[in-house]
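Model it.
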Amino acid sequence: MIVSMTGYGRGIAQRDDINVVVEGRSLNHRFFDINIKLPAPSYILEKKIRDIMKSYFHRGKMDVHVSINKFTSSTELPVNYENASKYYQALCGLSNHLGIKEKINLSLLMPFIREIIGVQEQDLDFDIYWPIIEEALQKAIQSIKEMRLGEGKSLYEDIKARVDYIDTIIEQIKKKFPQLITELREQLSTKITEHFSDVSINPERLEQELVITAEKIDITEELIRIGSHLHQLEELLLFDGPIGRKLDFLLQEIHREVNTLGYKSSDIVISQQTVELKGELEKIREQIQNIE
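Modeled.
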């Protein structure tokens, strides 16, 4: 089943006084590109997270954000009283200047809270933290995978419906083509009769000209190749693994054959059907851009 590159997941893991939240977002991208945001002391874990993500996902632009909260008796919350006084005085001065009678309270100091109250934790023990981070990461990955699979199912249904419609048009063209040869024979005979009614036409020569003309407009090979490519495309849609690039290549090949088909055919109906085929192929191409 095909997998979309669009997904979001969130995982939470908690043990004792440690709480870890991992959020992951995935968007379409030609390659695998990952950006990991970790609390400063835990940058050493970035490679581990990257390796795990690469083992689950093959393509897509991914953002992973890890937040760690730990409050214990050893956690200190130092207050910078000097900064608090300065901010309070500044707000009071501004209030007086603007003629505002509202009293300055602690809620007005909240925008500056990081510069007033700091958090100082002990150094992280990665042997303790990593299992918790990994647990939250695995939950986020599972959530992302489920969303990508759900999106992939929708993509599959849309693409499959369009492929079936293209198949129907190709079958119509196949049935129409023998009729074109018959019509060509009649048109050629009529024109010769109209313009050279007093000239004796060699039937063998007429048949020879008809064969030469028929070869120029013969689209049998194009129809066979399109059918073969469509069959391969349908098989790929059921393949379990990254297929986006292969689908893109196949689609280019089908588009090339359809262009040749339209170039060779002078029939109005087939020309209209060729335009319709190109439209459907373009819609499939847009969908394929989001497949892993």
